[in-house]
Amino acid sequence: MGRCAPDVAFVWRAVLTLGLVLLYYCFSIGITFYNKWLTKSFHFPLFMTMLHLAVIFLFSALSRALVQCSSHRARVVLSWPDYLRRVAPTALATALDVGLSNWSFLYITVSLYTMTKSSAVLFILIFSLIFKLEELRAALVLVVLLIAGGLFMFTYKSTQFNIEGFALVLGASFIGGIRWTLTQMLLQKAELGLQNPIDTMFHLQPLMFLGLFPLFAVFEGLHLSTSEKIFRFQDTGLLLRVLGSLFLGGILAFGLGFSEFLLVSRTSSLTLSIAGIFKEVCTLLLAAHLLGDQISLLNWLGFALCLSGISLHIALKALHARGDSAPKPLKGLGSNPDLELLLRSSQLEDEDNEEEEYFVAQGQQ
Question: Quick check: pTM over 0.85?
Fold first, then answer.
């Protein structure tokens, strides 16, 4: 009987982890194919992104209200000086990352998007070194070379290569490096009280919306105002279908961020990172099977080289976390009293907190 109890507990943890990984896959892979599908008929990716931001803000606000009612504790609301000085840079970088990523689907395939976007970890490493969140080591140089070499190989002589789309998604990856570095620094500031991702999303979305609006006004505003699908609509049914499709994307975007948080809170950020690698492979296989994307042997070799660099970086982070005899928590990230969202309110281990915000970028669109 005593031997059976640990086995049951282990099986339960394994089943729960697998369920959370599958939930994360559904949202992450789903929103990638959704964006590509929608941009084939709806050529306004910036407007689509802005509507998604509005939906995420709505669901974040509702989640905060539900948690506040159940816990009887007021949620954090930043002052305007802190909001503009601390949150605005992160919000702007996040808006550009997501907006450019969605924009690129007008020009490139899901395969090329997935391969190129996986290079985001390269820019995260670079900006982590610039902001002194990482120390320069020979192993990190090797990681950078592997990822950069892989990026060159899986775009070299690609039959479906498009310079505009590639530039957009590569720009998104570059800005994503800034985005996640700033996000990590933002979440480390305990005095802001934004350790809970729901609170973070709630504060980020309005500034993201405003940051993306000028780009939308210049490139899509006039065309959208004269489009028969939106402002000059003549078929109410068509308008409702378009808005319904856009609202569905917002639900997927919110679910992606929330599923990442659930996976990390119940397992570790290392699990999320490893799951992210397999997710990229699954996305490529589905793109080749469902959409007929052509991937050459050289492209696959380049992608494998890029993934080997990412895997090496994950392994180094894991060894570094376990090699410290007395690990020091990041400033401001001790126990998190706000993990009461649906599953549990237990304290994350210090080394998981150190990796959580850094690796969450692996699952982003």
Answer: no
Task: Evaluate whether 243 touches 38 at the Cβ level (below 8 Å).
Answer: no
Where do the structural domains in the chain lie, given as residue ranges?
21-324
Cα 359 to Cα 320: distance, rounded to the nearest angstrom: 15
**Closest to 183 measured CA to CA, from 112, 261, 299:** 261
- Record the tokens describing residue 144, joined without a space: 């950078």
Mean pLDDT per block of 10 residues along the chain (365 residues) reads 64 83 89 91 91 94 91 86 89 92 90 81 79 77 80 67 87 86 75 79 92 92 82 80 91 88 65 71 80 78 81 75 50 37 40 44 44
Rounded Cα distance, 38 and 33, in Å: 9
Exposed / middle / buried, residue 80 (Cβ in 10 Å: 0-12, 13-18, 19+): exposed
Q: Kindly state the tokens that stand for 123.
A: 């820019």
Alpha-carbon distance of 330 to 322, in angstroms, equals 15
User: Rounded to an integer, what distance in angstroms lies between the CA atom of residue 28 and that of residue 257?
Assistant: 9
Query: Which residues fall within 8 angstroms of residue 172, CB to CB, at 6 or more apart?
Result: 96, 97, 98, 99, 100, 101, 104, 117, 120
Task: Tell me the residue ranges of DSSP E strands in the chain.
Answer: none
165 burial type by CB count under 10 A (0-12 exposed, 13-18 middle, 19+ buried): buried
CA–CA distance, 294 with 235 (Å, rounded to integer): 37
Residue 94 CA to residue 80 CA, distance in Å, equals: 19
Cα–Cα dist 279/290, whole Å: 16
